[in-house]
Amino acid sequence: ALKSSYVTKAQKESQRSYTSVQPQASYKVAILGASGGIGQPLALLVKMSPLVSALNLYDIANVNGVAADLSHCNTPSQVTAFTGASELANCLKDVNVVVIPAGVPRKPGMTRDDLFNINANIVKTLVEAVADNCPDAFIHIISNPVNSTVPIAAEVLKKKGVYDPKKLFGVTTLDVVRANTFVAQKKNLKLIDVDVPVIGGHAGITILPLLSKTKPSVSFTDEEVEKLTVRIQNAGTEVVEAKAGAGSATLSMAYAAARFVESSLRALDGDSDVYECSYIQSDVTELPFFASRIKLGKKGVEAVISSELEGLTEYEQKGLEALKPELKASIEKGVAFVQKES
Ligand code: NAI
Fold first, then answer.
1. Top-confidence residue, 105 or 126
2. How many alpha carbons lie under 13 Å from residue 316 in its C-beta half-sphere?
3. How far is the CA of 304 from the centre of ligand 1 (A)?
4. Index of the ligand 1 atom closest to the CA of residue 247
5. Is 99 in the pocket of ligand 1 (CB under 6 A)?
6. ipTM reported for the complex, 2 dp
7. For residue 265, what is the enclosing H or E element?
8. Which UniProt keywords apply (predicted)?
9. Distance between CA atoms of 91 and 113, rounded to whole angstroms?
10. Structure confidence at residue 13 (pLDDT)
């Protein structure tokens, strides 16, 4: 028998904290693109959720190893691997939340729009399968360009006759996570308290942090606003350049995506206090899709917090007007992509 002295106090404590992940609910989550740079750490974070009973991992490559590895963690969810198109339908059966980080990431010099052709096709194919197998699921789109891939997903779902605009989400959580981090650093605030809404879209100037609506209330000089806004808008490029050809943000993205999954599961589970920013079909502006703060409920988007778009500063108002033409063009590009194929 193993003597207890072989196990240090710290090991016991760490074990207690991990095994204390007791099942609290039994939702099924599928990750499509699960062996990628985002997919793997995202799968790990979702594996740690007490709200998940089944974690289905799908990819066109290398997913068996990821699932075998994760399946050894002694947290409640059952991990299953699905490889290749023939196993996609089974992966999606009875799933409550589908997360899609499948696709190619940016390399230095590329914009999110440069990814359009490859990722548009991938998202279209995957969402068709979602429509056929779990039309009731919350769908989280991570694959870029999100400004276009969400309208693509909407068109695909419409064609299949199962589009529920309250359940289709472009994941912009990373913009909020970055804004919170950068503002807390700049203003020496306690990170956990900081909340900056980020609206618009998810590329370049379409990302519009509403610094004037930061909680707790904090004042910025014009120069601080300008610098922080530009940094939040270009934060993805900071990572692309630092990785120097090896891809774009994966770990911070996985963290942000896991937060959005957890929020969705809490909402499904009846928690009445779940708010996130997300890029959705929206009528807060004249554009058909727009990111803003939403309240999540059992049926998806329960309310859009449009009051946050009132009383903007002149800088924010200008930013809002400036982003509209670009966002509009990206939406139209996505819609046209699906329509021309029919
Ligand atoms: P990656 O290349 O490391 O992983 C992508 C994975 O998708 C690979 O495992 C690949 O085998 C898989 N894949 C490709 N085609 C597929 C298909 N037809 N079906 C299923 N899986 C497929 O890329 P990474 O870094 O994980 O990025 C993924 C996507 O997320 C990119 O489009 C990237 O631009 C986007 N992204 C989005 C962010 C956001 O804030 N929404 C932030 C960072 C990245």
1. 126
2. 19
3. 28
4. 25
5. no
6. 0.99
7. helix 251-268
8. NAD, Oxidoreductase, Tricarboxylic acid cycle
9. 29
10. 58
